[in-house]
Specification:
Bound molecules: ligand 1PR
Distance between the termini: 52 Å
Shape: elongated
Strand content: 25-35%
Number of strands: 33
Largest sheet: 8 strands, mixed
Structural class: alpha/beta
Number of helices: 17
Helix content: 25-40%
Protein name: Imidazole glycerol phosphate synthase hisHF
Length: about 600
């Protein structure tokens, strides 16, 4: 038997397949006045039908092919699903894998011999015991057990209690089992979610049997003369006795679900920047690079509609979430801003998708010396109907302190609110500006090579975070100054000595559950999202990232979902100006093979 693996072949492909519709059921996708209607049951998702984004960091799967047989079909299936393959050459490759597939082939004893001699048995056990993503196929399932009777007894990896034995042919069943069979799914396995009563393909003479000792592991069984284990699952560790790579669309869907674990359906979010105009009415406004005033003599705040009405409209059109940003919240204390609370109360009466509200979430002392904690501010927002709150400026200060001291004080608004309401309730809104540089070492912040060169041919940029001016000043004394300042400079924002990358990582550590990633340069420009920035941040953190600023066409949404790890895309101007309705975005994504909520 040949020793370990062949040469490394890393293949990147910018399209992953994504299942979405049954190849056997017909799916009718029709626009109605309300929205789409899907008729007929969606049975399983056909990887052939649709394709979706791939990104660099997670689009390579590690394959343990110890050379005992033909795993070409597994390789082909992985590539078909848009993934590159990195072959295991050393035990370290196993330990360093992000996602490992072990398509065991050949005989149990010979396979264990190779694994033991190469040190891979030990590495496999360590990898699996750490609950790292693993998929064993056929012998790759059997080797997890204590031992096998095949040419044995022979010890296996010993991770699952039980002995792998030969099928009993005395009751008329031909051995090996070569053919299609159905599963009895016994517990939630995620990778089997599309299998239902579809048949999958088996070829084997030996099988493991379910018992009290291994029942925690068993996720499905199958009957071939006796009831044997068809799949196991514990945490991120999966193994199947059948061959997904030979089981048609449903088999590909098993692989796809392993390769794309818990993929959330990308969300389309409508954002309403809200503030009082100069007459004191609360309006939805929209900036160009954060400048929300008309370029006329009057220099008025742009008025694009009423917040509650627009939120209702976007809900009806299919927005997956609605965000309200009280953009002058940093200077107009939000608990004094009762109309904003009223907007939330009224909106939540008949808008049944998550509502996020941001602006002014920080500790505050009013003119009478009464102190309000950020938690009180957030609580008031939650009581009024918000599902999530979004923190901007105050999160920048918290991240700066944390990076300076390395200490989590537990006192920042971010930490306090996430401790009480949970991480999922706290979004951090980042408002960076692109700063071009000639060399990445020119700054102490993480820089990226930019797709479009800077004005002087600069090849790099870092993304400087900004905060609302007057953030920590007792504001009522300064309202006049603030109003002047937002007329004067960039929507009244001050650059801080921290990059978007550093901020994102710090706030993730401090307990943020999601990042709303704006970009001042792209805001209101309609030229597309800043892909360099979104890629940088969505690859850096493991919490969901909402891509924001710059959407001008439906293609910008598919681009951002294909080329970055963003979980959601947010837009404002194109929706407010009715240039692109939300349902057109969703139809486009659907046509492009990107799964959407319908
Ligand atoms: O700092 O905690 O008080 O929060 C203030 C919040 O208000 C922050 O979330 C900040 O992003 C927001 N904000 C402050 N000033 C402005 C402004 O426009 N002058 N709006 C502002 C930010 C940006 C996006 C916008 C997208 C999409 N708005 O949310 O909706 O860029 O726009 P597009 O699709 O039209 O390009 P704090």
């Amino acid at each position: 038997m040949a020793a370990a693996a062949a040469a490394t072949t890393t293949q990147m492909d910018n399209t992953r397949s994504l299942s979405s519709i049954s190849s056997t059921s017909s799916l009718l996708f029709t626009r109605t006045n309300e929205f789409y209607k899907i008729q007929n049951r969606v049975k399983f998702k056909s990887p052939r039908a649709l394709s979706i984004r791939a990104t660099s960091s997670d689009s390579v799967v590690t394959l343990l092919d110890y050379g005992a047989g033909n795993v070409r079909s597994v390789r082909n299936a992985i590539r078909h699903l848009g993934f590159g393959i990195k072959d295991v050459q050393t035990p370290e490759d196993i330990l360093n894998a992000n996602r490992l597939i072990f398509p065991g082939v050949g005989a149990f004893a010979a396979a264990m011999d190779v694994l033991n001699k190469t040190g891979m048995a030990e590495a496999l056990c360590a990898y699996i015991e750490k609950d790292r993503p693993f998929l064993g196929i056929c012998l790759g399932l059997q080797l997890l057990f204590q031992s096998s009777e095949e040419n044995g007894p022979v010890n296996g990896l010993g991770l699952i209690p039980g002995v792998v034995g030969r099928f009993d042919s005395s009751n008329g069943f031909r051995v090996p089992q070569i053919g299609w069979n159905a599963l009895q799914i016994t517990k939630d396995s995620e990778i089997l979610d599309d299998v239902g009563d579809h048949h999958v393909y088996f070829v084997h003479s030996y099988r493991a049997m379910p018992s009290d000792d291994n029942k925690e592991w068993v996720s499905s069984t199958c009957n071939y003369g006796d009831n044997f284990i068809a799949s196991v699952r514990r945490g991120n560790v999966h193994a199947v006795q059948f061959h997904p790579e030979k089981s048609g669309d449903v088999g590909l869907s098993v692989l796809r679900r392993f390769l794309h674990p818990k993929t959330n359906i990308p969300k389309v979010i409508a954002c309403l920047d809200v503030r009082a105009n100069d007459k004191g009415d609360l309006v939805v406004t929209k900036g160009d690079q954060y400048d929300v005033r008309e370029h006329t003599k009057e220099n008025e705040v742009r008025n694009l509609g009423k917040p509650v009405e627009l939120a209702r409209q976007y809900y009806k059109e299919g927005a997956d979430e609605i965000s309200f940003l009280n953009i002058t919240g940093f200077r107009d204390f939000p608990l004094g801003d009762l109309p904003m609370l009223q907007v939330l109360r009224l909106t939540s009466e008949n808008v049944f998708v998550p509502l996020t509200v941001g602006g002014g979430i920080r500790d505050f002392t009013d003119a009478n010396g009464r102190h309000y904690s950020s938690l009180e501010v957030a609580s008031e927002y939650f009581r009024s109907g918000a599902d999530k709150i979004s923190i901007g400026s105050d999160a920048v200060y918290a991240a700066e302190d944390y990076l300076k001291t390395g200490v989590k004080t537990g006192k920042s608004s971010l930490e306090q609110i996430s401790r009480v309401y949970g991480n999922q309730a706290v979004v951090v809104s980042i408002d960076p500006r692109r700063v071009y540089i000639t060399h990445p070492n020119d700054v102490e912040f993480k820089a990226v090579r930019v797709t479009d060169l800077g004005p002087n041919g600069e090849e790099y940029a870092w993304y400087q975070c900004t905060v609302g001016i007057l953030c920590f000043i007792v504001t009522f004394l300064f309202v006049h100054t603030a109003t002047q300042s937002d007329k004067a400079v960039n929507g009244g924002r001050e650059g801080r000595p921290i990059g978007a990358y550093e901020l994102a990582k710090a706030v993730e550590d401090l307990g943020a559950g999601e990042i709303l990633l704006n970009c001042i340069d792209c805001d209101g420009q309609g030229k597309g999202f800043d892909m360099d920035l979104i890629k940088l941040i969505s690859d850096a953190v493991s919490i969901p990232v909402i891509a924001s600023s710059g959407a001008g066409a439906v293609e910008h949404f598919s681009d951002v979902f294909r080329k970055t790890n963003a979980s959601a895309a947010l837009a404002a101007g194109i929706f407010h100006r009715k240039e692109v309705p939300i349902q057109s975005v969703k139809e486009h994504l659907y046509k492009e093979g990107i799964e959407v909520r319908i």
